[in-house]
Design a protein that fits this description.
heterodimer, A: about 325 residues, alpha+beta, Immunoglobulin-like, seven-stranded mixed β-sheet, three-stranded antiparallel β-sheet, about 50% helix, elongated, B: about 200 residues
Chain lengths: ~325, ~200
């Protein structure tokens, strides 16, 4: 019964990440900064994985971004391009449209920040369903804090790797107390590293981090099988320890959702807290849904054929293995 | 009036037109668009919740078989719509009204059906809703993941509704569920009146 539930959830998790990838939904970042009366600096940060990057190209309706960039370099996890624009004093950004080529084919977002010399600032999130944004400096405003709450919720709900790991834990725990300890340990651990990574205290190469997260899923799969067969192991007896240990890795993964936004340190704390609350809310919603469905199946006395009942955990293992090899190869520069 | 209603039904079923509804945009990809569509469309979630509550009141076997019958038949209905058996807006409105009436009526009456009958009604409900849902979505928006999301949304909603009434057969809960059923049936009647007077509700 549990396994069937896992099958349904697996379908959800698997389908929510197409093409199959372990959470490459980090947003891109476009900053347009007015540095003088007639000069602008434009920064474009495109998330990369090893040597691979999704195809996103920014365009500005006044044509500024059609010229070659003044500089282009690779930073950890990002390809960065910079344009230095010299124009006439009468040229205005207001009314111009930012369009992101290729965004409609992805499930990532683009954060846009426009800064003027007098401290005026306009922020926006461009999403795949409407891959453009009209700059309105008169009515523009900075990104509100609730945006980060929603970003946190979105980050975990569209991240099959994190959800698969939580699902694996749910399939291992055997009682309520163990469940509370395990989920609390996971929450505590990922909150610690989320904060540390966001403030730059710790950092791992993106591919290596994703490989490690994938490995955590792969690690859980045989433990789930063992638990379902009535066996025991350290993980089955103390799932909260494993949840804490791997939660530290997952927290660094969550941090990737905030890291690219180029937030000032003063704004980072509020954003971090709300982002983390969003992640917890999303995770809690997922857990409540899983438990509610388990209860429903138990009440109905649903019994599934063994192949159906057993398949999800094997698929979880296969996905974990696939991602581990995929990101492992990227980490070591194989096949990139 | 009866003749007019019959003529309307026949006309609606015989003359299919392209329906121009669209999916809810969740901003989280097509799968969540599908789930959101199911969760935010009253014509979808009201009868599913109502029939889930009814199946739960009927008993474990009815609930189990109904749940197992609902999703495959919803998918079958959706596939049929995509294969060209799409309903016109008038037909969708009539189907929606009929489903409200039947499911609401069943819940209000609270007469336990045998498991096979219960599964049959669930299959009919699923097939008609799948047909209506996919007829109402423009072909360009009929993304496979969105359809999977809608089916998953229906499955989850049905299972959760069952779990409300199955374990607790308290009087107040039964009364509340039956009152809810009567409201749904009344809504179905209102829809019938609207469709006869003003035409399709769903465009």
């Amino acid at each position: 019964m549990r396994a069937f539930l896992a099958a349904c959830l697996f379908a959800w998790l698997g389908f929510s990440a197409a093409p199959v990838c372990a959470h490459e939904v980090r947003p891109a970042y476009l900053e347009i900064d007015q540095t003088g009366q007639a000069t602008y600096r434009v920064i474009w940060k495109l998330p990369t994985m090893g040597d691979m990057a999704i195809h996103l190209v920014p365009h500005l309706s006044n044509g500024w971004l059609e010229q070659p960039p003044a500089d282009q370099f690779v930073a950890p996890g990002f390809l960065v391009r910079r344009w230095d624009i010299r124009t006439t004093p009468s040229a205005s950004l207001s009314g111009q449209t930012v369009a992101i080529e290729g965004l409609a084919d992805t499930m990532t977002d683009v954060f846009v920040r426009v800064r003027l010399p007098r401290g005026q600032q306009t922020d926006a999130v461009i999403r795949p369903e409407q891959p453009y944004f009209r700059i309105d400096l008169a009515n523009g405003r900075a990104l509100g804090l609730p945006t980060f709450l929603l970003l946190g919720i979105e980050h975990i709900l569209t991240g099959p790797d994190h959800l698969l790991f939580v699902l694996g834990l749910l399939l291992i725990v055997r009682d309520r107390w163990s469940l509370i300890k395990t989920i609390s340990a996971f929450t505590l651990a990922h909150s610690i590293t989320l904060a540390a990574a966001t403030f730059g205290a710790i950092q791992l190469p993106t591919a290596m981090l994703n490989a490690s997260i994938a490995l955590s899923i792969l690690f859980l799969a045989p433990e789930v099988v063992r638990a379902q067969r009535g066996g025991t192991s350290y993980t089955i007896r103390h799932p909260w320890v494993v949840a804490f240990a791997f939660g530290l890795l997952h927290g660094m993964g969550f941090a990737s959702g905030l890291a690219s936004l180029g937030l000032e340190r003063s704004a980072l704390l509020g954003a971090l807290v709300l982002f983390n609350v969003g992640v917890e809310l999303g995770q809690l919603a997922f857990i409540v849904l899983v438990l509610a469905l388990l209860r429903s199946f138990r009440l109905m006395e649903l019994r599934w054929p063994r192949p159906i009942a057993q398949s999800p955990v094997y698929v979880i293992g296969i996905l974990g293995a696939y991602w581990t090899f995929q990101y492992g190869a990227l980490t070591f520069g194989i096949g990139a | 009036m009866k003749g007019r209603l019959t003529a309307l039904v026949v006309t609606a079923l015989v003359l299919p037109q392209a329906a121009e509804a669209h999916l809810v945009v969740s901003g989280m990809g097509p799968l969540y668009d599908g789930i959101s569509h199911f969760g935010l469309s009253p014509e979808d979630f009201l009868p599913v919740i109502a029939f889930g509550l009814f199946a739960g009141l009927c008993g474990k076997a009815q609930a189990r078989w109904s749940l197992l019958a609902f999703v495959p038949s919803w998918i079958a209905g959706g596939v049929a719509a995509m294969a060209g058996v799409a309903l016109a807006p008038m037909s969708i409105s009539i189907v929606t009204a009929a489903i409200f009436l039947i499911v609401g009526g069943l819940l209000a009456l609270n007469r336990a059906l045998p498991p096979a009958w219960s599964a049959g009604v669930a299959a009919l409900l699923g097939a008609l809703r799948g047909l209506a849902d996919l007829s109402g979505i423009a072909a360009s928006a009929a993304h496979g993941l969105a359809l999977a999301g809608m089916a998953l949304g229906g499955f989850v909603l049905f299972a959760l509704a069952v779990s409300i009434t199955l374990p607790l057969q308290r009087l107040w809960m039964i009364v509340a569920a039956r009152v809810g059923g009567s409201w749904l049936a009344a809504l179905g009647l209102l829809l019938v009146g609207w469709v006869v007077r003003y035409g399709p509700v769903i465009h």
